[in-house]
Amino acid sequence: MNKILEINNLSKSYKDFSLKGINITLEKGYIMGFIGPNGSGKSTTIKLIMNLIRKDSGEIKIFGLDNESNNISIKERIGFVYDENHFYEELTVKEMKDVISPFYTKWDEGIFNKYAKDFELPLNKEIKHLSKGMKMKFALAIALSHQAELLIMDEPTSGLDPLIRSELLDVLQSLLLDENKSIFFSTHITSDLDKIADFITLINNGEIILSKTKDELLDEHYIVKGSKKQLNNNNQRNFIGLKQNDFGFEALSKNKKEVMKQFGDSIKIEKPTLEDIMVFYTRRSDHHVSSH
Ligand SMILES: Nc1ncnc2c1ncn2[C@@H]1O[C@H](COP(=O)(O)OP(=O)(O)OP(=O)(O)O)[C@@H](O)[C@H]1O
């Protein structure tokens, strides 16, 4: 086992929110998708990993090293991409690159030029005139040009159109062909993960709800559909979440056998998507949706 990122019992409290002793492990060569609803603690966790804010307690190890005492050497080996990348808006893409590159001892101009060409970056355009998608590609090109072993991205695909999103995901996937690289990225667009994630970690309300391989997660859960009159107080105990509308109910369950036994053939059992899993684990239990 080669742990690239190891978070143990990490806690951080704000006035109205706390991360409650979270644990996450990412091994070398894999992509982990970090999902959860708005305000669940994704950005806070990423800021703690990047040592941008101080933890209250717990431990964060990156490449086996404590992230506070080895801050500088660790940052050299990480590519960090986030939504509000702080570039100087007045500079051109090339000028900005010239400002950033000296900070990295392993900067590789050849790699930057390759990505600049692949992504069709307009080198002489001012940053303020770049589209959101182009800014994101620039941030990714920078992150990839110093031979980072770990890419950490906070919502890299948010606000991007489907075409650019899909291009970005292709680039991430091709990076993983080099098994020395690992990727940890947060998103609330679960369809991004269907394609590329190896592991999924779900956070809700500052707590890790689950963290496992995507395949395991999809294999062990089932969507159960039926009519409302089939429900009673007893037969809901195998449900992780329940959604009712005027036509019937939909639930998530891990226990297919037991559900089949209780409901018989009148029930419909389907495979869930990652979105189903996220929604059912994080919704309020009394949720009722109207059919409109
Ligand atoms: N500096 C701060 N002071 C006080 N509260 C904060 C601070 N930063 C974040 N929070 C609160 O912590 C909670 C978690 O925020 P966080 O940004 O980590 O969520 P998130 O999962 O990244 O959400 P989103 O998907 O909306 O970006 C929110 O309720 C937010 O208001």
Automatic annotation (TrEMBL):
PROSITE patterns linked to this entry: ABC_TRANSPORTER_1, ABC_TRANSPORTER_2
Domain ABC transporter: 5-230
SMART domains per the UniProt record, alphabetical: AAA
Regions crossing the membrane: none
Gene3D superfamilies xref list: P-loop containing nucleotide triphosphate hydrolases (3.40.50.300)
Keyword list, A-Z: ATP-binding, Nucleotide-binding, Transport
Keyword Zinc: no
Gene Ontology molecular-function annotations: ATP binding; ATP hydrolysis activity
Coiled coil ranges: none
Pfam family, one: ABC_tran
PANTHER family xref list: ABC TRANSPORTER ATP-BINDING COMPONENT, ABC TRANSPORTER ATP-BINDING PROTEIN ALBC-RELATED
UniProt protein name: ABC-2 type transport system ATP-binding protein
